[in-house]
Design brief:
Helix 9 packs antiparallel against helix 10. The protein has 4 domains: 173 residues, GAF domain (Beta-Lactamase), CATH 3.30.450; 100 residues, PAS domain (Beta-Lactamase); 61 residues, no CATH class; 145 residues, Histidine kinase-like ATPase, C-terminal domain (Heat Shock Protein 90, 2-Layer Sandwich). The strands form 4 sheets. A 6-stranded antiparallel β-sheet has the order 1-3-2-6-5-4, with helices on both faces. It is an alpha+beta fold and 510 residues long. It is flat and about 105 Å long. The protein is 43% helix and 24% strand. Pfam families: HATPase_c, PAS_4.
Length: 510
């Protein structure tokens, strides 16, 4: 973390509002901590704090020395100060001509947000800002966090003038932690709760909430029971951190499973622990249900492969022998029907194999491996009954992603293309391109494509809408593909128009 301490020490004593700051060293640490807080709570490529002195902005804290070299008076931060309101700018093509950046500035800025910092007089004295090299704005929760931190900095500046440090931190806790869904509390070394957010207080009946702050909340328990409860607190005070998962019966009658993290910190010469407790009851229930569902899926897959593979193989062989023994005796219709039986048997066998691989991949996260895309495409195409009219083109090059999962995806999408082609000449191109944060794989065909209505249904399959039934030419197999994509935090995009074919792009993160 980079902070321009000389500026704070020499100039921050006198802002344009005439405030006199009385604890410069503490203020330096607070500004540095605010930048750390932003880095931990908000997604972005760079963060900084600018404050005004004699009408000019200076960067007093930033996430990097490179960012500190940017002149805030010739940057979007100046707009935030002049307008005294939030500045949010999206730049699809990066910064174009408006401001000059240092030559060694390596971040391509696609997004900027500046949050003004106000004193209690209403004067805007600077801003806290975030920038990103991605084409995405902050979420509403992140914007709220940034606003809270800006308010927090304004309070710190006020307190620096009025020496009301205790009031500042109490308000800071309220601003910050009352927006948390998790239960947050702070205890002193006597194990008394000195702060609790609304989520924590809601765990107690309304008539008992006045007996939380200033109490251990263990007064009614026996000494033996109290000793068990406070042991984790002792560990946190001794070691600095403590995390535990425990089932707790709360005074409001609810029994919940909580994941609690406790961290030691010091303030005004006193030592405290900050506790953040997340209710994971539903999460554990979902994990158990998912585990049971995955087990059932694996059992079904094993049964299907064991019970159906051999009969399918025998049916396929029988059709072959009938065709061979009756050569010249059957009409073309009968021969076509026997050929269709063979093709269907092959197709069902392939889907059973894919189901087995899919079940294994879905229940056990597969490690990435490095391989040549062309080799894996050729290997996968050998498992598919490709029409003679279909041509496959592929990129050569090394990629690093889960191999079995990619094979399943390719089988599903190529089979889609076979259906789309309806026995007409069709070309499939399987290519890839490497990006900074991952690999994009494109599967394009020249088949019939999707109508707008069909594409809307495909999007439902991708979203995992199990109530939608598959229809011919409408993306059969995409539900399996989308499940695998979600499992590995990848992204799936389908683009298609009638008569122009379909293009499926999968972004696989590094």
């Amino acid at each position: 973390m980079f902070i321009e301490r000389s500026y704070v020490q020499e100039h921050l004593h006198n802002t344009s509002s005439g405030l006199q700051f009385s604890f410069t060293d503490a203020l330096i640490r607070d500004l540095e901590q605010s930048t750390v807080d932003v880095t931990m709570l908000i997604r972005g490529s760079g963060f900084g704090i600018c404050l005004k002195q004699h009408g000019q902005l200076t960067t007093v804290a930033s996430s990097s020395a490179m960012l500190a070299q940017v002149n805030p008076n010739q940057f979007y931060t100046q707009q935030t100060l002049e307008n005294a309101r939030v500045t949010e700018i999206m730049m699809p093509f990066g910064m174009v001509g408006q401001y000059a950046l240092p030559e060694n500035f390596k971040i391509i800025i696609h997004y900027f947000i500046g949050m003004p910092i106000f004193l209690n007089t209403g004067e805007c004295v600077g801003c806290i800002f975030a920038l990103s090299d991605k084409h995405a704005s902050l979420s509403e929760k992140e914007k709220t966090m940034l606003q809270i931190i800006a308010q927090n900095i304004g309070l710190k500046l006020d307190v620096a003038a009025s020496e009301q440090t205790e009031v500042l931190h109490h308000k800071t806790f309220q601003f910050l932690f009352n927006h948390f869904e998790e239960a947050v509390f702070i205890k002193n070394e006597r194990f008394e709760i000195v702060f609790a957010n609304e989520a924590f207080l809601s765990l107690y009946p309304e008539d008992q909430r006045s007996q939380v702050i200033g109490y251990t909340t263990l007064e009614k328990y026996s000494p033996e029971e109290v000793e068990v409860f406070v042991q984790d607190d002792r560990d946190a005070f001794r070691d600095g951190q403590k995390s535990v998962i425990e089932k707790i019966s709360f005074p409001n009658g609810k029994i919940r499973t909580m994941r609690t993290s406790k961290s030691r910190f010091e303030f005004a010469g006193q030592t405290y622990i900050l506790g953040i407790a997340a209710d994971i009851t539903e999460e554990l229930q979902l994990q158990k249900a998912l585990s049971l569902s995955t087990r059932d899926l694996r059992m079904l897959s094993n049964l299907a492969m064991q019970d159906l593979h051999k009969p399918l193989d025998k049916i396929q062989r029988l059709a072959f022998y009938v065709k061979e023994d009756t050569e010249g005796l059957l009409d073309s219709t009968s021969i076509g029907q026997l050929s269709e039986i063979q093709d269907r048997c092959i197709g069902i066998s392939q889907y059973l194999s894919a189901l087995g691989s899919y079940t294994k991949s879905y229940s056990d996260i597969e490690e990435c491996s490095q391989f040549n895309l062309a080799n894996i495409v050729e290997e996968t195409m050998g498992l598919i009954n490709l029409p003679a009219s279909m041509r496959i083109f592929m990129s050569h090059g090394e990629i690093n992603i889960p191999k079995i999962s990619l094979q399943i995806i390719l089988m599903q999408l190529v089979n889609n293309s076979i259906i789309h082609s309806q026995n007409t000449l069709n070309t499939i191109k399987i290519t890839f391109e490497k990006e900074k944060f991952g690999t994009v794989i494109h599967i394009c065909d020249t088949g019939r494509g999707f109508s707008e209505a069909a594409l809307a249904r495909v999007e439902k399959y991708i979203e995992g809408d199990a109530e939608e039934s598959f229809q011919l030419l409408e993306g059969k197999g995409l539900a399996i593909v989308s499940n695998l994509v979600r499992l590995y935090n990848a992204n799936l995009l389908v683009d298609s128009k009638p008569t122009t074919g379909a293009r499926v792009s999968i972004f696989w993160p590094n």
